[in-house]
Amino acid sequence: MASETSDGPLARWTQGVIEDTEQRNRLYRSLFYVVTLFFLVTTLFPFYWLLVLALTPNSLIRQGNWDLPFLRPQGFNWEAFVEVFQQIPFHLYVFNSFVLALITTVIVLFIASLAGYVFGRLEFPGRGVLMLGILAISYFPPAAFLVPLFEAFTGNVVVLPFVGVELFKPPRLVNTPGAMVLPFSALFLPLSIFILTTFYGQIPEGLEDAARVEGTTRLGALFRVIIPLSAPGVATASVLTFIAVYNEYFFSSIMALSNQPEQWSPLVGGILSYQTQYTTSFNLMAAASVIGVLPVVILVVVAQERIVSGLTAGALKE
Amino acid sequence: MAKVTLEHITKRYEDVTAVDDMNLDLRDGEFVCLVGPSGCGKSTTMEMIAGLTKPTEGEVYIGDRNVTKLPPKDRGVAMVFQNIALFPHMDVYDNISFGLRLRDYDKEEIDRRVDNAADIVQLEGMLDRMPDEMSGGQRQRVAIARAIVREPEVFLMDEPLANLDAKLRVHMRTELQRLHKELDTTIVYVTHDQAEAMTMSDRIAVIDAGELQQIDPPLTCYNSPENLFVAGFIGSPSMNFVDGEVTQNGLETEYFDVALDPGTIDGLSVGQRVTMGIRPEDIYPVAVDEGLQYPTNRIPARTDVMEPMGDEIFVYLLLEGAQEATMGTESRGSGQLLMSVDPDSDIQEDEEVNIVLDRSKVHLFDTTSGEAITHDITTTPVTEGRAERGETGGDA
Amino acid sequence: MSAEEPESAPTRESRKSGALVSAVRWMENLGETGFAYLLLTPVFILLGAIALYPLLRTFELSLYTNVIGVGDAEWVGFEHYVDLFTGEADSNFPGTTQFLWGDVTVNGEFPFVHVERLLRSALAVTLIFTVVSVFFETLIGFGQALVLDQDFYGRRWVRVAIIIPWAIPIVIQGMIFFLMFHPSAGFATDILAPYGIVAETNTLNDPASGLLLAIVADIWKTSAFMALLILAGLQSIDRSLYDVAKVAGASRWQQFRLITFPLILPTLGVAVLFRTIDAMRIYGLIDISSSCSVVPSLSCMVVSTFTTQRGLSSAVAFVTAGVIAIAVLGVIYQQYREGF
């Protein structure tokens, strides 16, 4: 009966929304901002909390007197960021991660460039089947590769499956970059292949022909013309590979037998060291995490266009 | 400078034969156009000369070298592409010098050659521009300069003017001819535009369905086409074709007869199905045929659409008894002829006219094989009287 | 003019080593197919050695028993697989975890299925984790994509904010949630426990809480991935379709239901499959936020047994691969239909 007279403010507003486009659009607009804000808060809050934790002295953390819901830091204790490097050589772990990521990126980019050229620019029988095969292999879980790889990387003889023929005795790779770079390269190669296939396939045929007539070989044309012209694609593949290696957990935590930086244990090992050795130094765990996150955050801010295009190109292969 | 020889070149893809047993002999310093409709195999032929495509069978020679197995870079050829194909990440200087730098020429030599080439194509002062800062014509000049600096034995040009606007295209034609004079190098030029081929080349190689149809100087192709395809392809508007049958004293077509003595022409026999070809400019209205040495008998017709071109008028003729049908320059039905007359002619649309054909310009082709039989049916001067009889059915 | 070229080119080449020149010449004369396979050789070697060989070898090892350090490998056929599915092998897994769920009692009381048993099963945990997290990731990802599809000031920065969780290392993702629910450092338990959402004490060692934690952490990190894929799909929709719909008088909801949703569906399908495959590999997040004995996943089982029970570990690994292969087949079918 209130709606009958349209008297109440709520009823009037409802009526307005239904009848007035202008008002309806305003409603949509404000709804949109609410939703956006919600997403911003949910994605960024954990980082905020990590920072709070890192800045709060450990003794205060354990008291657990958080002033909910804002969780202000209980005092500013910058020392945690220094202490992180004093308790363990955290910088060495990060350095290892960088080295591993760089080596993997170089290997993956080189191999994927050749493959991307082949899949993007050549017509040959078996092309579709091979691409599907690479796609399928990239989906298998690392766990399915672990046992034989660990066997081989610890220096056991590689045996041809089901035939029993002993092939060769590999060097002991665990605790060296090789034990991680090899699985990383295989794991992240397919994504780069698909990204580069898309980019290399878009370079006009004439440019390659021109380069070849001018004096390059087919490979020369790839490196002198196609790759330079696909710079955005190469950057995309590099960034994604780098991030993927930096973020990897499975092989990173297993192939360095203990969490020692001398054994090429990467970031994972550094963070785990705090969790297992300094079990109550919560501010250090948080500070280490903040430091570990920084490189990728910078990378994402700088290269977000590349990441967005690469993820969609690689996944949807458009 | 070198001659180019293709011997029994065949290129097969999985289910199509793009080029079929092609033999070509291009002379040193010659400007040859490979011309044909799209998909005829002319580009594939050029790619095989360049080495971008390997022939399935046959050998390619440049000069006296067999280059069949050589990669493009070692063939001493330079190429200008239809889509211009400048490297967008390099400035003009780097584009032009690309091939020289690959070959480790020293800096002074590169500079000298680039300056010289830029001079030839009038690109001075633009060497530090990027390709996307240039107009289509300028880009094309860079592409040509890139070919020139290499001082190649053979220039290959794959429809280099196709992407330019009409005015620039005509201008570049003369530029290319000037360039050819200046460089005196063998140029192989692919185009689907027969006018381009006619105006520029020393010889035209007409290609259709992967096979070489004829290779001759432009006027030879125009005046003595070896088969129906060449006759129809060269010349614009194209030749009129009329199917007919050879009789004792002439040629009988659906709408008119032409008197001739089949006995005097090699390869012609009574009862044979032939196709007569006559170019629009070799058809005359009766009023102006006086000067004609070898006219045919008069053929009654009615004018239909007229297209004044300025220097001439195209008149579409409907032969007596023929149905009016859709007409266009390129698709003329039987019973229709296209005639070209002087611009000051007083012919009107929709009026009865009598026309004669210049018999010295009548081409006869075998209808089934398409091969030319003769390009001239004047060997036996036919008197007006005999022609009259021929026209009425003939009782010779 | 060109007389110089034929002479100068060979002399230049002869400066390089003859073997290199002939190798280059050989490569240039390879047909398209030969050249393609030549360039793919590194791919074949790398994937063959690091993926294909281990996969086959894993299967072979799963047919042998090999308790590390206890004698030679002994052929046992499919015994490990039988053990897995009968529960014989469960004693080898950490804590009270199992491969399959044992007898799930149904006694008419709510909840009808006794969740505790299910949460001890690696297979069940992996599947529950996958289904629940992918479902919410799709939902939230869709929401984020719809936001990012709008034109507004600061869109770039909102996008960065949404992507960042996707880009952070798993170990830090796990650490954040570990700390959040840690009994002495965290605050989340205090907030959520009163509502019965997580266990009040020892949250990180409670199976249900641990699984919930992993699911929430995964949703937080990977919704962005879904959002980006869906966004790409949204942006490929022809905008003029919306103008047509507007002219026809469709409301926003109708536009979404009749245009956006059907057109985005194929993209959504691909994205969901991708995430499903990825989610089923879950290991690191669990390892650091709670532990493999609390929240057993298939990969967890492999890692926790591979140094002691090589054959059994291989069997679990191969079953994991098999489960994922089902989803992979879905992707392959999808690609095949699109004419790969």
Describe the 3D structure.
The complex is a heterotrimer of chains A (318), B (396) and C (340). Chain A is mostly helical. Chain A has two domains: 2-77, no CATH class; 80-316, Orthogonal Bundle (MetI-like fold). In chain A, 74% of the residues lie in helices and 2% in strands. A two-stranded antiparallel sheet of chain A has the order 1-2. In chain A, strand 1 and strand 2 form a beta hairpin. In chain A, helix 5 (79-87) crosses helix 15, helix 6 packs across helix 12 and helix 14 (267-277) runs antiparallel to helix 15 (282-316). The termini of chain A are far apart. The mean pLDDT of chain A is 84. By secondary structure, chain B is an alpha+beta fold. Chain B has two domains: 4-233, 3-Layer(aba) Sandwich (Rossmann fold), CATH 3.40.50; 240-392, Beta Barrel (OB fold (Dihydrolipoamide Acetyltransferase, E2P)), CATH 2.40.50. Chain B is 24% helix and 30% strand. Chain B is built from nine helices and 21 strands. Chain B has a six-stranded mixed beta sheet with strand order 6-7-8-3-9-10, sandwiched between helices. A six-stranded antiparallel beta sheet of chain B has the order 13-12-11-14-20-21. A five-stranded antiparallel beta sheet of chain B has the order 15-19-16-17-18, with no helix packed on it. In chain B, helix 2 (92-102) packs parallel to helix 4 and helix 3 crosses helix 4. Chain B starts with a strand and ends with a helix. Chain C is mostly helical and 340 residues long. Chain C has a domain at 93-305: MetI-like fold. Helices cover 67% and strands 1% of the residues of chain C. Chain C has 15 helices and two strands. Chain C has helices at residues 4-15, 18-28, 32-61, 79-86, 115-118, 122-148, 155-167, 170-180, 188-192, 207-235, 240-247, 252-279, 284-289, 298-305, 310-337, and strands at 64-65, 74-75. Chain C has a two-stranded antiparallel ribbon. In chain C, a hairpin with an 8-residue loop joins strand 1 and strand 2 (74-75). In chain C, helix 6 (122-148) packs parallel to helix 10. The radius of gyration of chain C is 27 Å and the shape is globular. The model of chain C is unreliable at 1-14 (pLDDT under 50). The interface between A and C is large, with 100 and 104 residues.
